[in-house]
Give the backbone structure.
Amino acid sequence: MSEESASRDNLAGMKARLASLVAETRTQVAGADQAALRELRVRVLGKKGELTAILRGMGGLPPAERPELGAAANAARDEIEHLLAEAEQRLADAALNARLAAETVDVTLPGRPLALGHKHPLLLTLEEIERIFVSMGFIVAEGPEVETDYYNFQALNIPKDHPARDMQDSFYFSEEICLRSQTSPVQIRTMRRMAPELPVRIIAPGTVYRRDDDATHSPMFTQVEMLVVDKGVTMGDLKGTLLTFAREFFGPDASIRLRPSYFPFTEPSAEVDVTCAICHGTGCRVCKGTGWLEILGAGMVHPNVLREGGYDPEEVTGFAFGLGIERAAMLKYGIEDMRHLFANDMRFLRQF
Amino acid sequence: MRVSYEWLKEYVPVALPPGALAERLTAVGVKVDAVRDRAGEISNCVIGRVVATERHPHADRLTVCRVIAREGGDVLTIVTGATNVSAGARVPVALAGATLPGGIRIETTDFRGVPSAGMLLSAPELGLIGVYPDGILILPDDAPVGEDAAAYLGLRDLVLELDLTPNYAHCLSMLGVAHEVAALSGAEVTWPAVGRGAASDRGDGRGRPTLPGETVDAGEAGELTSIAIEAQDLCRRYSARLISGLKIGPSPLWLQRRLEAAGIRPINNVVDVTNYVMLELGQPLHAFDYDKLHGRRIIVRRARPGEQLVTLDGVRRDLDEDMLVIADADHPVGLAGVMGGQESEVTAGTRTILLESAIFAGANIRRTSLRLGLRSEASLRFEKGLDPNGTVLAADRAAYLLEQIGAGRAVPGVIDVYPEPVAPRTIPLRLSRARAIIGLPLERGEVAGILRRLAFAVTDGSEPVEPFRGGADVPPAPELPLLATVPTRRTDIEGEIDLVEEVARHRGYDTIEARPISGRLTVGGYPRRQVLARVARDFLVGAGLTEIVNYSFTDPGFADRLALSDDDPRRAALVITNPLTSDRSLMRTTLLDSVLRTLAYNQARRNMDAAVFELRPVYRPKQLPPTELPDEPLSLCIALTGRPWPEAWNEHPSEVDFFSIKGIVEGLLRELGIAGASFRRSAEPTFHPGRQAELIVAGERLGIIGEIHPRVQENCELKARVVAAECDFEALIRLAGPRVAYRPLARTPSASRDLALITDADIPAAEIEAAIRAAAGELLETVALFDVYQGEHIAAGKRSLAFTLVYRAADRALSDADVESVHSAVRRALVERFGAELRS
């Protein structure tokens, strides 16, 4: 039947049929669902579909007209393919959008939490200080906490029955063995290990113990000892090193102030103040209105100590400081009570 | 040391106001802690004159006084409860609106119908701590009515509170501070009066330290008493004077007020003068009742075994040969430099005293005073060192003052025993060293000037000496040093470096320029121990644990709390001989006890969930008591309790168990690059018998993990189960290897097979896994346990385990037949070895 009609058609008629097939398809894709589209595709483009049916009539055309019909048919096929693809895409988009809409969450609900641990503020502070000095070429050194009276005192120019022993009351295990009351014994141990090598540049963090227990003193606390021994180092180098440290640790605006003081193992000795980290020098409760905080003791290594360490005090000079980490941590984080540092209350530790 | 600003001006002109003076002194090392205004709180208190008194109409114990507070002013009515006020008396009056020490405010008050326009004041109400008669403070008849009472009483004075370092003994006296002030301004120091003709008089009636070698005339005093020093190593010098015809009584007001300014309570004229001279010159004095000295003489000697002395505080003390005593002909009458004896104490009836002005060895005084717990202003000064040439001056000054205040008559002559006189030391100072230490291009004249202002005599040396070689610029040729002669009161100056310090502090630390560190470039770094401790801490914190820091101390109960066996080496802990408290008397041998107590502390504060670790040393003595230093290995303790992992609205974490702690330890070992760890059932009494294991690496036991035994949990007052681990971190450091061991990615395909089997429940999974590996050989790439089941469908005492095995050959794709062959071998081996029933 169709063959007959095709054979009846001339070129114009066949082109008209192609045009109407495209127009029909255009009408039918609108509103079609996935199934209707599949069906439409088979009906129009399938092997037994309407387009094929039209093309079958091509044989009835004069050969000269065939290419023109061929071109028209290809154009119609492309158009129909495009219409179908467009409709399919539209449907896919709609389906995806519907799914996405259904999957909406309340973005204000809390995220799935990770287990986060916390370093102890003392260790955080210590790591920071070590980092600063290691970056300046210092080596981290260690020494025992249980020390001999010799290393803790005598080698540091503090003989037995010396009034300077009052500056720190120590715990003893026997006449000669005690808990170190300062990290300074590491100075002697390190110098003895290194002498006569120069320069000595060490930083020695460690736990120390004194017989004190009140609101501002803990029987156990942490110190960092710094020691430089070299040819030609002066109090100017000490000040420069302290200033570099203070600016790295407390901020670029920090400045330092040295006041004469006394430690048996340094001479001249100094008490070192740094610009108050809380008020930046304008005066506040923490610095008692002075704008300065006393943070460490320092000085030029005493000749007797250099000698004990195996260096000739006529050939070298040295400088050293001792810094209390608890106080530094309290200033850095604004901790109001030293006892928090050793109570290990989770509510405290989880803040770091 | 408290320094009255007004008193200080007696010895040196002070141009600076007190605040500025305090700053300058602090800047040269004489640290001023505070400047306190003695009368700061006193206002509106004047000198009044009582014109009439009458009995209160309604109260027997009250007196109504008519007082004028200003000559020609109104007559005020003031009610007092005191009974020592009569017409004509001049008294301090707090007017309405006045303030007194302690923040007390005085207002017009009604006393049973009589309004009182203020209050008559007693000495304590004005903050005076001296000896005053009870009742209202009656002032001398010439006290100017209407004037500020605080000013009249010398309370309008500022006191500099010094916080002196132990080397600043020379500033434990008004004169010492005056010398530092003089060094600041270049002014001259005015020495105190001793009266013309005194041994220490230098022609102007003012005393100076005597010169070594100068002999002092014992005079009349020498006929009345004698002194012998037997223990010359402990007593360098003993000088004494006698004061006779004594009338013991209160000191004059001016003297009392000065002692009060220094924080010393006035007692009587003799004691007050000795204290006054100690404050003024630094030399402690002691007064013995001369008539109570047997044989009327003094012997300075070591105590004899068995001797006793009742000290001034009434305590009978056993003496020994380490103690220096002052004895009379028969027995000790005082502990030298520490405390006098009760028997020879000055009392109201004392007529003659022997004034002791001596130099005792500091170390000995320190030992004795510490042993007896008797530290005083005097003993502190002896400990730190005194001018050996100042004893006669101090004795003369006290004698002079006692005469001046009419307390008695100084017997002429000073008895002075000084076997080896101390001459001022002359110390060479090289400019090269001063420059090399201080870091300033100091000039010779400037250095000499600073030392001269400090009263050092400075000359140029005549012999060139080697320059200091430790500086950056070593002078090429020998240099002439400065020679500084040090006053003997400066016992702290012993060598060149001490002179350098004097120069530095008076030149000013603030004048030294900060220099960035220079010298050879060095590579900074950490020791391996610290590197690995950081790796571990970072890992554990990353895994959600919180770091804790406990005291290194523990108490003797720790071992029993942990139920340690009797022969457990951790029972051997170092014992502190002088602990602060018994619960901090031992050094930890394990961290576990403190960590468990940390959890208990938190549980008691409703922190039921915690995951913590502590990485600190433990202390392992080599012998007890120790004769050598103990080992201090780092120990790592981890503990978990409750549900420490965060809870979310859509997920509920389970409670921690044995496998939580095991997973953390396994992860840490991986992070530290330690392979080949195994866990073996163990039997530590601290832990749950069925839930504990030893960590074994390379045959070495490195630690223990497990659930805490319920009894230990109870001992440590823990409210919930805890799982914990303690590892020898030093061993982990030793075994730690590279964390990364890269292997090229496989190019051949793998084949995976699951295997489920039922065995007796008590066969350890690790044994089965080992058997799988052994049977499969090198084609087996990985084996992983993915299911454990016991219960329904499994016979009692049996359990089902399921593994995934992955096979791979490095050089070819395995065929099904290849895989089947090896997998069958595995299955057969499991059946043969464990009697396993294979489920797949």
Summary: DSSP finds 13 helices and nine strands in chain A. The radius of gyration of chain A is 44 Å. The beta strands of chain A are 139-140, 146-148, 177-179, 200-209, 220-230, 256-263, 266-275, 292-301, 317-324.
